[in-house]
Amino acid sequence: MTRRATLQHAEATLDDPALGEALAQAAAFGRLSNDDIRAMRETRRRKLAAGVTAALALAVGVGLWQQGGIAPEASLTEHYETQRGQKLSVHLADGSTLQLDGATSLDVTLGKDQRHAVLQKGEAYFDIAHQPTRPFTVEAGGSRTQVLGTAFDIDLAHRDVKLAVYRGAVRFGSQASKQGVTVRAGWRSHLTNGIASDPTPFDARQQDWRQDWLDTDEMRLGDLVETLNRRGGTVIAAPPPALADQMLTGRFKLDSSEQLPGAIGSVYGFTLEHQGQNLRLVPTADSDTKTSSR
């Protein structure tokens, strides 16, 4: 090694140990040019800059995490909606399954610690996957249903919210109050004026609206009309109060929005008439009076 190379080696070793080592290795193969030395310094500079940037990014990230500046992944809300005469089956990411009747609107949010659904209108059957650390809550028409893992149906009617439990158990009551009732499989309840009724039994083995059957036990005629309108066909106008509040009893096949009201009209005192593009229920007395005046 020449004197000049030795001096370069010594200076480089003091100023830049890594460069000095590279010069020492290169000395065995001959003298390095000035361009070679500049290239080595540039490579060294880039590596140092990259290391500083990575260190700063790590420090900033840790600081934000400690201060809560980095939020967990936001919960995603999905909206599901059906038209009259349409049914929809939904498989959620948590393993739960929903079945929506016609003219039904529903929002579902799956969060890290809880699952939440809001039924805006219509009727839906919930088969909820059991996850003790992520309870599932359904809100509908002022009611709140809390579950861990179960199967139940919620019908958001005009005046109240109806609940029927097919598996497991739920807590059912008003959103505005912590009071409520526990409803177990084979029992049902309804929320009227913010108060949940005492559960009553029903046969959970029987087919329901999902198989085109309807159990009208404790159902108002006005609610029956609303249920039939969800299924498509000719729209039936809301019946007058005298008819709407009549309570129905029995099980019926939901084949046609016209056949069912026509079949039960003679028992409950009304007839079915066309009014423009719609149908309407006319009390028998009014119908007789109208016919005699012609």
**Global structural class:** alpha+beta
Estimated helix fraction: 25-40%
Quaternary status:
single chain
Choose one word for the global shape.
elongated
Number of H- or I-type helical stretches: 7
Give Rg in angstroms.
Answer: 36 Å
Weakly predicted, low-confidence segments: 1-14, 52-72, 287-294
- Measured between the Cα atoms of the first and last residue, the distance is 129 Å
Number of E-state strands: 20
Largest sheet: 14 strands, mixed
Range of strand content: 25-35%
Helix and strand run: HHHEEEEEEEEEEEEEEEEHHEEHEEH
Could you explain how this protein is built, in words?
Strand 2 (88-91) and strand 3 form a beta hairpin. The protein starts with a helix and ends with a helix. Helix content is 31%, strand content 34%. Strands 1, 2, 3, 4, 5, 6, 7, 8, 9, 10, 11, 12, 13 and 14 form a 14-stranded mixed β-sheet that branches. It has seven helices and 20 strands. It has 294 residues and is an alpha+beta fold. Helix 1 packs antiparallel against helix 2 and helix 2 runs antiparallel to helix 3 (34-66).
Please describe the topology of this protein.
Blueprint: H1 3-15, H2 17-27, H3 34-66, E1 76-81, E2 88-91, E3 97-100, E4 105-110, E5 115-127, E6 136-140, E7 143-147, E8 151-156, E9 161-167, E10 169-174, E11 180-184, E12 187-192, E13 195-196, E14 200-201, E15 213-215, E16 219-220, H4 221-230, H5 241-244, E17 247-248, E18 251-253, H6 259-268, E19 270-275, E20 278-283, H7 284-292
Parallel strand pairs: 5-6
Antiparallel strand pairs: 1-4, 2-3, 3-5, 4-5, 5-8, 6-7, 7-10, 8-9, 9-12, 10-11, 12-13, 12-14, 15-18, 16-17, 19-20
